[in-house]
Amino acid sequence: MPLPVTPLRALIVEDEPLAATRLAGLLKKQDQPVEVVGTAESVAEAETLLRATQPAPDVLFLDIHLADGLSFELFERLDIRMPVIFTTAYDKYALRAFKVNSIDYLLKPIDPEELTAALQKLAKQREAAAPQFDAALLAQVLQQAQPAAREYKSRFVVRVGEHLKAIPVEQIAYFASLEKVTLLHTREGRRFVVDYTLEQLEGLLDPLEFFRLNRAYLAHATAIHDIIHYTNSRLQTILKPAPPDNDTVLVSREKVSVFKAWLDR
């Protein structure tokens, strides 16, 4: 009778809940058993989880851009020895360099076949003596991943009757999703429909300036007029101008620590 196969223990660090859920689902479908031992949405959460998880995970799935910074910061804070598979929507961070030193990368949205190939590569390396993370490689990646290299949208073109109008980002208070329509709210209280989802806008806007408060709101820092403690360890944000129908805009309990870190930059 064959012995049961020990599952591969994986930890997922990903600040997009849908992406994390999808990755976990893909891992469950692998022929090789994979157990997700935890998920984190920020550098701070990942550091806490990695310190607390014993024994250490067999593999770390690591998004590059997190809500509170670049995930590379983890290598400065911790002695990470497990193999790392980076997941990212951007392919400009010297990603081909990740093909060495027991490191791989996957571009989002993650292709199931590429995920399987990465796990097969990991299995082969576990059988041999996998090399450790190369500090020189990390320095190279960090140098190329400076925020200044990233270009964000500076304006949005909206339709006003038969006319087109360009709204500078500096005039935007927040974006709100309402019944599958995304509305741009200006500081003056005007609203315009834009052809982007909030998920798309997160990748187009400077994360130092804008924060995804919840599924329906993406706000500029200066639009957050007040923050109040709410039930179940959540936070209520008071936006200016006020949302339609004085909608209550909450920050979920899971995002509170990341939100505080974002405010305290």
What does this protein look like?
With 265 residues, the chain is α/β, with parallel strands linked by helices. It folds into two domains: 139 residues, Response regulator (Rossmann fold); 109 residues, OB fold (Dihydrolipoamide Acetyltransferase, E2P) (Beta Barrel). 26% of the residues lie in helices and 31% in strands. It has seven helices and 17 strands. The strands form five sheets. Strands 2-1-3-6-7 form a five-stranded parallel beta sheet. The chain has a five-stranded antiparallel beta sheet with strand order 12-11-10-14-13, covered by helices on one side. The protein has a three-stranded antiparallel beta sheet with strand order 15-16-17, with no helix packed on it. Strand 8 and strand 9 form a beta hairpin. The chain starts with 7 loop residues before the first strand and ends with a helix. Pfam families: LytTR (PF04397), Response_reg (PF00072). One of its GO terms (biological process) is regulation of DNA-templated transcription.
